[in-house]
């Protein structure tokens, strides 16, 4: 793979940018009834999806490190992976959305969209190329059947 920045570091960087934007941008504050309920729901959903997807990888005895797709020993396609090709990244996105709700600045949604763009461009597409090289038609068929995010 071309890029070696761990997704957790990328998520932390976007979270920091969200904090800075919410703190120093004088416009964009929002609030609505149930905002914290939605925030907690997204946070819980992020944890649930993240933990379940990690358990599936550990159960399949394959690598969870996205920086080294060559260490992947098995294509995981069951469980959450039959609905999303990247539930771990989806969990990170939900975590950022929850954080954005906590901060209460509408412009943070732009940073969450930037996170999706960044992950697609610099993480997911190179991973997909590597997995296509490793698993060939089996992976291509999986990509046709299952969406990238949700």
Spell out the key features of this protein.
150 residues, mainly alpha, 5 helices, membrane, transmembrane helix
Please outline what is shown here.
The chain is mostly helical. It is built from five helices and no strands.
Task: Report on this structure.
With 150 residues, the protein is mainly α. The protein has one domain (7-14, 32-63, 73-145). The protein has five helices and no strands. It has helices spanning 7-24, 35-59, 87-103, 108-135, 137-145. It is found in: Endomembrane system. It comes from Arenibacter troitsensis. This is Protein-S-isoprenylcysteine O-methyltransferase Ste14. The chain crosses the membrane at residues 7-25, 37-58, 89-118. GO terms for molecular function: methyltransferase activity.
Could you tell me how far the N terminus lies from the C terminus, measured between alpha carbons in angstroms? Answer: 24 Å
Helix vs. strand class: mainly alpha
Q: Count of DSSP helices?
A: 5
Beta content: under 5%
Q: Describe the sheet with the most strands.
A: none
- SSE arrangement, N to C: HHHHH
The 3D shape can be described as: elongated
CA gyration radius, whole angstroms: 17 Å
Quickly count the domains. 1
Count all strands and give the number: 0
Give the % helix.
Answer: 55-70%
Uncertain residue segments: none
Average pLDDT score: 93
